[in-house]
Write a structure and sequence with these properties.
Helix content is 67%, strand content 0%. The chain is mainly alpha-helical and 148 residues long.
Length: 148
């Protein structure tokens, strides 16, 4: 199964993107945050990396006219649109709700206070572009070193 470039490339791109998030937090914030490897959002977008790797691999192995490329391209567009649009907006809404919760925290006792919502859900355009670049590069690397 891992010799199939349409499986290997996206999985590898996703894993590298998630590990990169830990490294980037370490370099920028000077802290160890291994939990970032299992979280959504952040730089680079692992969703975009996986979809770019899948789409690029299907293009490299089967060509632009193949149904594999067509399906992965359409699916990839939907994933990127979702990451930069709907999921990002949901993260912004969560930030606003968390601010309101903090503002009105005096209305809740400790036991009934709602938990803060997760805000790191979607991606900015630079995060998506970094993911797309990473995924595309991984697909070319897999094509180069996996003689299938």
């Amino acid at each position: 199964m891992l010799t199939n470039p349409l499986i290997l490339s996206p999985l590898l791109a996703m894993v590298i993107a998630q590990i990169s998030k830990v490294v980037i937090v370490g370099l920028i914030d000077h802290r160890w945050a291994p939990k970032r490897a299992a979280e959504t959002g952040g730089m680079p977008s692992s969703h975009s990396a996986a979809m770019a790797a899948l789409c690029t691999s299907s293009l490299l192995y089967y060509g632009v006219a193949s149904p594999f490329f067509a399906i992965s391209l359409v699916f990839g567009i939907i994933v990127v649109y979702d990451a930069t649009g709907i999921r990002r907006a949901a993260g912004r809404h969560a930030e606003i709700l968390n601010d309101l919760l903090a503002e009105f925290s005096h209305l809740f006792d400790e036991k009934s206070r709602p938990a803060a919502l997760k805000t790191l859900l979607g991606h900015s355009y630079p995060q998506v572009l970094a993911g797309l670049g990473l995924g595309t590069a991984i697909a070319f690397i897999v094509k180069r070193f996996l003689a299938v």
